[in-house]
Design brief:
alpha/beta, 5-stranded parallel β-sheet, Oxidized Rhodanese, domain 1, about 140 residues
Length: about 140
């Protein structure tokens, strides 16, 4: 401990930088551990849909959903998710995959559902853009 204090005294800029880095790393690890949602690649999501009967919730606006969505997915716009939690109760024990356009809102939606007691909530990494980027099928309308 004495050596660390001596190092910090001799190199305050490096010491401060190291402390800041350690704090950011710790915050990142805590956020990952408490979010409880796992980012799934399109391949992993396909496996979960086909083998584990995962429910896919598309969080995009209805106009975007109608342009192309994962077959069998249910559209619940992100802004209406909290109002729709009661409708999703039947899936509380089932795997669920949150999908948005790029994957940004899906993480927030997954955290919201986990706080409500949903156990297996995941997000599609990269959103529908990664799905279509892998040339996976979409449905329209």
């Amino acid at each position: 401990m004495q050596q660390l204090l001596e190092f910090y005294g001799n190199h305050p800029i490096l010491g401060t930088a190291w402390l800041a880095f350690a704090a950011l790393l710790l915050i990142s690890l805590i956020r990952t551990a408490t979010s409880g949602s796992k980012a799934l690649s399109p391949l992993m999501a396909t496996h979960m849909i086909n083998k584990e009967n995962a429910q896919v919730i598309d969080l995009r606006a209805i106009a975007d959903f109608n342009k192309g969505h994962i077959p069998g997915s249910q559209n619940i716009p992100f802004t209406k998710l909290k109002d729709s939690i009661k409708d999703l109760e039947k899936f509380k024990q089932s795997p669920m995959i949150m999908v948005c356009n790029t994957g940004m809102q899906a993480g927030t939606a997954a955290m919201t559902l986990r706080k409500e007691g949903f156990e297996q909530v995941h997000k599609l990494q990269g959103g529908i853009q990664s799905w279509t980027g892998e040339n996976l099928p979409t449905a329209k309308g």
